[in-house]
Write a structure and sequence with these properties.
19 helices; two-stranded antiparallel sheet; 3 domains; Growth Hormone, Chain: A; mainly alpha; single chain; globular
Amino acid sequence: MRAIHEDDTTCTIGELRPGAVLLVLVVGTFLAPLDSSIVNIALPAISSDFGVGLSAVGWVTSAYLLTSATLLLPMGRLGDVWGLRPLYTWGLLVFGAGSLACAMADSLEALVLSRVGQAVGAAMLFAAGPALVTRAFPPNRRGWALGYISLAVSAGLTVGPSLGGFLVGAFGWPSIFLINVPLTVVVAAIAWRLLPAECPDGGRLDLPGAVLAGGALLLMLLGLSNVEANGLASLAVWTPIVVATGLGATFVWWQRRAPMPMVDLRLFSNRGFSAGIVSATLAYLALFAVTFTMPFYLLRVRGLAEGTAGLVLTVTPVAMALLAPTAGRLSDRLGSRGLASAGLLALAAGLLGLSVSGVDTPLWWVPAALVALGSGMAVFQTPNTAAVLRATPRAQAGVGSAFVAEARNVGMALGVAFTAAIVGSAVGAEGLPGGTQVVDAATADAFVAGMHAALRFAAAVALVAAAASWFWREPDPVETTSAKP
């Protein structure tokens, strides 16, 4: 069968087996979030082996996140110009090579540099993966397929901590990187064989635009990441943000004049595209208020053991993984607007539920609220992604995929920054004490007050996202053909 649908603007060469393509994409997509979550549990061991402090070893995580976020848009455009099959296949191989280099690193500097190489591969995978769904599946089955892509992301986030703990304990921290190497080689070989070749679009990568966009995103994320350590009013926060704003304005100016721009700014005149990107950014901002506050609340305020706290926190990605395929299938039949808006309302309800959790709240209340929150994200995420890709021309599918992933990264950074500022103002200038012991009653009360304020702010943001999703985007067309896989 040819992957040519009614909205094609490019061509696909060769036989296409959508089920096999989906399997390749699910496995490849699983690796990047797995690596993001699996490395955190190894940081203490890495710190001990290299004799560095936790602030220094934090660059093992930061270098990966900053690099992948910076390169997403250029990689998305490269996929449109070069082809999605080579971008995805080479992304797997680059990710595997970076993983091998991480395992062989003999210093922190070498490990951080190797993580940058891993992140290059991850950016290629995230830019190509959802776009390939638009090549392999007709509109009435894309939501279903994207649901399994979302399941792969949630599964990677869920499995990472427990798998990482086992591997670090049994074989040492290099093993968490080594397991990627054979997987990436095998999946890359299968991907090259199964994914169809495409006709190039005759364009080229806009290098000035790539530099301007990458620089703006990098500086913006660096500034936001400094909020937790330096406070919202710090020059370390606002200097890079101001420079990033200038670079962003220059990027827009250049895109209007470039002969072959990296981003066609007319995309944002499509309400389905712009509403989807804005809603996704706000949704992840709201979600990461929980990601920031819950570990401290469970471990340092409630005094839970690490294993028990970890089980409680896995409720959210598990709920997302279980519901994502169903949400995708429903979006094929019902459209995305209502589902995405309903999911954001459930997200807001979960946040409000958590915002009344105190020192003596029954423990069952927290996972119950996390189930509502994770279910809401699942019901929102897959239909919203389907709507964004539906609004993106096929010739720009790579850029559309990159914007979806970039919305997630920016939303995460904004969520951590706002939450850190709100909680920090409640706790005071001294901040949260270090260590692993349960904090004293006064500190616990101050933290809980700040957490309540942050979570209620996040709930308000989720409600704004729901309003944007419902009132901004137009009702999307629903296919009348069967949406069964």
